[in-house]
Every structure is written in structure tokens, then in C-alpha cells.
């Protein structure tokens, strides 16, 4: 037994991650049912002392030093349970299994409890950054047994992305906290992606900008406060010519967005925990709405398009930038708010500063803004919601006129920018000391005797309302 780290599942992510671990000085052994995948890793690895692979599970487990550290990078769902069952009879007490996939957090809790009884430490660790991240340094979000994490720490810290030298991995909390944080990361990811797409639409429709011009704008923004992976790749995507025909590839891509479920889970769970996150909800809804293309086309013909007057790019571009920055802040605020609540409800004991820090590099939602967010939580670890952070008041306030204009333009001329507008509505509602929900309470009391509280007296009240 000589390898320090074991990896099950030599698909693109697994293969890239094990090579990354090996490059960072930890000998690693890979396992895949498919001998072809094992062989190809052996070839690419070059040096079997550093990295080797097998398609025999017994050889794999026997080849790992104790306590075994075995990471699974297999598709979420039943496969994880099956791999665990296959491994179990071969493991020793104290061994560690890490699920690196996008598993549903309740599955992780179930697996952790089950494996604890058998003396095995189970971790759910979100890994973000796609194939490139896995190879060059992802952001890793591990949750599980704190003591057992000591065995994983040096490996994960070496393999993770670095932000100004700081590793983008940290022990996050017990049980499914790592998977949960990754789930919310993905909810934020959905929001930022949809927002970027809406700005692209606005620049195209109102600004009459072509793909290279939008790409240039995104590229410039990415040099400044909007520096982020998603803005940066959007700049690159918009420049890509179509190999199969003329023009730009982005114009040929069907406008139906698929999803694997993590964004939807985030929205679903936010409803359970009572945390408002309309921008993320809307981003999930937009993927669902995008699938209804036939109906969209029917209604497009029926209602037609409005004439959109040109908004001069000189005037539009800075406003679009500010609107996007504002909406990015609101999206992080919503996701982090959910994490704050989940930390209490699920006893994860999360540290929000740490989470913001490990998102600064490697992951899909990495952005310069996260450094400011980390600072805000560093200054006040009990911050209930990012919008309340004094550090962000100026940034939010200075973007308000721009986002109002952008949203008004979209509403007036029928440009679909629902995430931008929900980010603004979220802020407007959140910053309203008085909302019209007094009428909602009165209606509830009217038809259901649900009672209400008063602004001027303590107690619970009910009125026998006159019948309309
Ligand atoms: C990441 C991503 C990744 C996710 C894809 C696909 O952090 O690297 O979040 O884990 O699987 O983005 O997600 P959808 O198919 O749901 O868009």
C-alpha cells in the first residue's frame, strides 16, 4: 500500500483532478470500471510512482495508505450509493470517502450517518471550476468530520486554486454543509449567468451593438470592478466565429438552456427556509421558460415586437455596467442570506467570510467583488444580509440610478430582463420600511380570520369585516 490519494471515476473531472493532485506531490491511484479509462490515465500520468490507475477495485483499495482517502467523482445519484456499497467491505475503520459530485445535500446527510456507524468518515465536497478548474485548481467546498479533515487538508490545499496565494478550500462545517454550500454556489451561478445574458440582450437590442462590440465591452468590464469568470468567458464566447457556417457561433446556438437541478434545489430549499431569493428563482424559471420555445414563437407572432429606440452606446454602456454590478451584488446577497439561514437551521456553523474567500478563485462564480464581500463579513461575522453591509452602501447607492433606467427601458420596450428587474425589486422591497403587506394581512383576516398584529398596540387582533 503506497498511494496517498485514491480517486474513483476517471471521467473528465476525475482524471483532471487526480493529475492535479499528483502534480502537487501526492501519489495518487485512480479507479474506473472501464479499463480503457484507467489505461489512458496511466499513459497520460507517465510515472506510475506518481499516478497510476486500475480497473480492479481490490487492487485499488489495497494500493492506498491508511487511513485511505478516496474521492468519488461520479455522477450524482444512485451511482454514489453503489460505489459506496462496493467499497465498504474492503475498507478499514477510519478510512475517508469524499463525494466530490453535485449530490443533493440530504443524500449526503443520509450517507454520512450510515457510514459513521461503520467507522468510515464521509465528506460531501463541492468542487467547482469545470474540467479546467479540476486540472489547474478548483475551488473545493468540503463538509464532514472536522478531525478527519486534517488528513485531506494538505492534499486539497495543494490542489485547489489560489487567490493571492491563499488556497480556495477550507473546512466548512459538519454533515452536508459542503454540498449545501456548493448547491447555493450553483444557485448564484444561475443568477449571474442569466444576468449576463440579459445585459447582452440589452446591448444588442437597445444599443445596436454587434457581437465583437459586446465582447469588447465585457472584456473592458472584466478589467475593473466586474472582474469575474462569467463576464470574462462571455467576452470570449461572443468573439467565437462559427466553424460550420458564417458569422458568430453564439447566434447559431439554440436559446433553450438545460439544467441538472442544483439551481432548482437552491430555490426549492430557499422556500423551505423562508429566505427570499427572487433573482435566483427567476434565473431557474428562465431556463424553464426557454424550453417553451414553440409557445414563445406563437406569442411572439401574436403580440409582435415593440420598436426599440436606439440607446446610444456611450450612454448605455456605463449604465449597463452599473446595472450588472448592482444585480451581481443582489444575487450574492440572496445566496449568502440563504447560507446564513441554513447555517442555523441545519447547524452547519458556517463562516461566511471563509466561504466568500474560497470563492475568490477557481470556481464559476469567482469575481473580484467576492474580496469586498469577504471583507464585509470579516468586519461583521454576524451580518444578516450583505445589503446591510455599510461597506457596500456606496456601491449599491451609486448604481441605483443606472439600474432603474435600464429596467425601465426594458419594461417600456419589451426587452426581457427579468433577473435585472427582480434584483431591483428585491432591493426596493428590502429597503422599504413600509410595504403594502398590511393589506395582505387584512385580506387574510377578512376571508380566513387569520388575525393580524397592529402597529400601535401589542396583541393579536381579528375584525368582523363587513361583507362586501
Ligand atoms: C461548477 C458548476 C458545475 C455544474 C455545471 C452544470 O461549479 O463547476 O456549477 O458543477 O455541474 O455548471 O450545471 P447545470 O447543468 O445545472 O447548468
TrEMBL record:
Entries under Pfam families matching the protein: 6PGD (PF00393), NAD_binding_2 (PF03446)
The record places the active site at 182 (proton acceptor), 189 (proton donor)
Which GO terms fall under molecular function for this chain's record?
A: NADP binding; phosphogluconate dehydrogenase (decarboxylating) activity
Any Gene Ontology biological process: D-gluconate metabolic process
SMART domains (UniProt xref)? 6PGD (SM01350)
This protein's record includes keyword Disulfide bond = no
What reaction does this catalyse?
6-phospho-D-gluconate + NADP(+) = D-ribulose 5-phosphate + CO2 + NADPH
Its Enzyme Commission number(s) read 1.1.1.44
So which domain of life are we looking at? Bacteria
Question: Which residues participate in substrate binding?
Answer: 102, 128-130, 185-186, 190, 260, 287, 444, 450
What is the top EC class of this enzyme, as a single word?
A: oxidoreductase
Q: Which UniProt keywords apply?
A: Gluconate utilization, NADP, Oxidoreductase, Pentose shunt
Q: Which pathway does it take part in?
A: Carbohydrate degradation; pentose phosphate pathway; D-ribulose 5-phosphate from D-glucose 6-phosphate (oxidative stage): step 3/3
Query: Which positions fall inside the 6-phosphogluconate dehydrogenase C-terminal domain?
Result: 178-466
Reply yes or no: does the keyword Oxidoreductase apply. yes
What does the similarity note say? Belongs to the 6-phosphogluconate dehydrogenase family.
Its biological purpose:
Catalyzes the oxidative decarboxylation of 6-phosphogluconate to ribulose 5-phosphate and CO(2), with concomitant reduction of NADP to NADPH.
Assembly information from the UniProt record: Homodimer.
Q: What is this protein called?
A: 6-phosphogluconate dehydrogenase, decarboxylating
Supply the source organism for this entry.
Robiginitalea myxolifaciens
